[in-house]
Amino acid sequence: GNSVTQMEGPVTLSEEAFLTINCTYTATGYPSLFWYVQYPGEGLQLLLKATKADDKGSNKGFEATYRKETTSFHLEKGSVQVSDSAVYFCALSSGGSNYKLTFGKGTLLTVNP
Amino acid sequence: DAGITQSPRHKVTETGTPVTLRCHQTENHRYMYWYRQDPGHGLRLIHYSYGVKDTDKGEVSDGYSVSRSKTEDFLLTLESATSSQTSVYFCAIGGSGNQHEQYFGPGTRLTVT
Q1: Chain A residues with CB inside 8 Å of B31's CB?
Q2: Closest Cβ–Cβ partner in A42, A45, A99 for B100
Q3: Which contacts of A85-88 are long-range, i.e. CB under 8 A and separated by 24 or more positions?
Q4: Cβ B42–A99 below 8 Å, yes or no?
Q5: What is residue B63's predicted lDDT score, i.e. its pLDDT?
Q6: Of B1, B13, B6, nearest in space to B74 by CA
Q7: A45–B101 C-beta distance less than 8 A
Q8: Mean pLDDT for the stretch of residues A59-83
Q9: Partner-chain contact A98 B31, CB within 8 Å
Q10: pLDDT tens figures, B23-50
């Protein structure tokens, strides 16, 4: 079956530091890959996505590249801000007729001023 | 933002009582999903619907039932709530053509005492 493994947190950084959150996956076929962000007390928001190998998703300074050879989709940001403090989820959809998503367990990021 | 609302947003109930959570969308999406979020588990799919009166089980469906009598409403029922069902419940919509991403509601925090 499908699975997503992401680095366990919590991750604590200082403002303007470089961020990497690792995500690897197991799936059949050619999945679509996603990063979602959850701010305290809110639902999940789609941050970025990639639908095929070597695609780079980007949004709000965050980037992730779909690496089929390493089955990875690591999230990066060059300079984090306090407002980036949130829980980040990696997810995949392997297609089919139900569009179900499989999520990683989430990584809590705290950015200190 | 996708037009998804959940009600109630918070609920405290006693063990053994029935509980129904409502998800309402204004986007006319065919697919709707119910997840639960628990620490250390990420999001896990409970049930999903692929049309009016068409539903199927997810990975943690025991103790839950769903109904969808209209495109815009997807109800999750706990027939006899247990303490293990204390969680945050999220509704999501999405999945169409080649677009696999889902959009989430604000969540319902349920406490079973």
Answers
A1: 98-99
A2: A99
A3: A85/A109, A85/A110, A85/A111, A86/A37, A86/A38, A86/A39, A86/A40, A87/A37, A87/A38, A88/A6, A88/A21, A88/A35, A88/A36, A88/A37, A88/A38, A88/A47
A4: no
A5: 96
A6: B6
A7: no
A8: 97
A9: yes
A10: 999 999 999 999 999 988 889 999 999 9
